[in-house]
Amino acid sequence: ELSQYGEVADIMALRVPGNNHFFVNSLKVLIKMHDLAILPTTLVVKDEKVNLIWDGAPASCTYCKIEGHWKSECPELAKQRKRNRPDRYREIKQMIAEGKNQIEQERQKEVEMNKELGMQNELENQHEHKRQEQEKHQNRERHQKKAKKEAEIEGARENENFIEDNENRMDERYDSAENIEYPKQTEIAKLEDMVVET
Question: Composition bias, kind Basic residues: at what positions (predicted)?
Fold first, then answer.
């Protein structure tokens, strides 16, 4: 197809800059143009439209194959990119919403944990209060029993002292009664002696 515009001297396949193992979809063609030949910006090769670019060539888009603009200025490509381009604002907004939801879920979990912990602490406090009340009641009963037992012991001791005092008083009275009777017996003995002497 290029032979009608001039003599093709060489055709080279271009490689990816910095990586010679990969080829790009472009060919470098050295051509000696015929006199008065005008090279077009596009050419149909094997039923496929390709772009021809050289120094000083007019703008020709390699995307839409239309003259007048470069690929970087192609409106069709801009529309395509816009359709395929992700909405960063929407993505960021969604990320923020997800972050807020996650924070709210974590806060709810923390609230529930604190509530359960508070209920557990309240139950523990109730059990502790009940245990203290039972301990106070047991101590009070223990002191009451001890006081009652001491009172019974003191009462028994007082009764024993009372009985002992009564027994001592009775012994003293009995001794006094014996001392009173002895003189009478002496007088009787004297009387008997007197009777005998008579």
Answer: 139-148
